[in-house]
Specification:
- It is found in: Chromosome.
- GO terms for molecular function: methyltransferase activity.
- It holds the Pfam family Pre-SET.
- The strands form five sheets. This protein has a four-stranded mixed beta sheet. A three-stranded mixed beta sheet has the order 1-4-5, with no helix packed on it.
- The chain is an alpha/beta fold and 310 residues long.
- It contains four helices and 14 strands.
- The two termini are 42 Å apart.
Length: 310
């Protein structure tokens, strides 16, 4: 173990750093932060609900095209939210003076609270591995970094940044860049069968030229599984082209069987077989999750019975 806690107490849980592959240390220029670095002012008007927020009267609920389930997850009944077309406006203590963000229309925690570890992978640098069950639709983490314009971004490595929005009047692109200042999401690796999806949301402000990016579980995740995202076809095409110009080749080191850029000798399936394998894994993981949830209920029941017996 390299260190006990990458976050140095800034989050709700410790994030251990483990390297059993080589002697590489974590990036020396990286500084862990829990909130975005953004110097621009923001508007802070949310809903004006008093007490319990209700769908017919709560402005935050009405403005949201992403919906939250009663058990506090993103509603996936209609499929995965569209990153560019859908938004979530959640209630928060700084924007909603009535409910103070204590109502049911709240998805994100005050601090990152998932039990994960940063670990060195054999071929893909650093990665993030879950140490707990995470259910599909569950919020995992906010993407945190420096909020910069495309002009500032020109002088930075682009591979870590996420485009947040474009200000229409000025055509200025806004990015969140975690290259030097960021949180655990900076280390999410790519997978061609990713288990996290990004979405845009507004919480502590309502400034539409800004916003936040979060990641939720797009499928059930088991302990020991790496947390991964899809870097996107544009990213791969651009970087494959750049590698070719330098006389090299870029390979994807995910473990999926239908890969965008498989390394030489990597086992691959055709589309139909890969689709069947995907369905099998989804069902198997879900059954495992259900067994775990039932086990938790049984343990809680026994604990209550034991307490009452005493």
């Amino acid at each position: 173990m390299i260190c006990d806690n990458l976050a140095e107490g800034r989050e709700g849980v410790d994030i251990p750093v483990i390297n059993t592959v080589d002697d590489t240390d974590i990036p020396f220029a990286f500084h862990y932060i829990a909130k975005n670095i953004d110097k621009d002012p923001r508007k802070t008007e949310g809903c004006k609900c008093v007490g319990v927020c209700k769908p017919k009267t709560c402005e935050c609920m009405q403005r949201s095209s992403i919906k939250i389930t009663k058990d506090g997850k993103i509603n996936l009944s209609s499929g995965l939210p569209d990153y560019y077309a859908q938004l979530l406006f959640e209630c928060d203590k700084t924007t909603c003076k009535g409910c103070q963000g204590k109502c049911e229309w709240r998805l994100t925690p005050e601090k990152f609270n998932k039990r994960v570890e940063l670990f060195k992978t054999p071929n893909a640098g650093w990665g993030v591995r879950s140490q707990q069950f995470i259910e599909a639709g569950e919020f995992v983490a906010e993407f945190v970094g420096e909020v910069v314009t495309h002009i500032q971004q020109e002088h930075r490595p682009l591979e870590y940044a996420y485009k947040l929005t474009t200000i229409e009047k000025t055509q200025i692109d806004i990015f969140i860049d975690p290259y030097k200042y960021g949180n655990i999401t900076r280390f999410f690796n790519h997978s061609c069968f990713e288990n996290l999806q990004p979405f845009r949301f507004y919480s502590s402000h309502r400034d539409m030229t800004r916003g936040s990016i979060g990641f939720f579980a797009s499928r059930d995740i088991l302990p020991g599984h790496e947390l991964t995202i899809d870097y996107g076809g544009d990213w791969w095409r651009s970087n494959i082209k750049d590698a070719a110009k330098r006389g090299g080749k870029l390979h994807c080191y995910c473990d999926w069987v239908f890969c965008i850029a498989p390394w030489p000798g990597k086992l691959q399936m055709d589309y139909n077989d890969a689709h069947k394998e995907r369905k099998r894994i989804l069902m198997e993981n879900h059954r495992t999750l259900l067994r775990w949830k039932q086990g938790e209920k049984d343990r809680q029941k026994k604990t209550v019975e034991k307490r009452e017996a005493n």
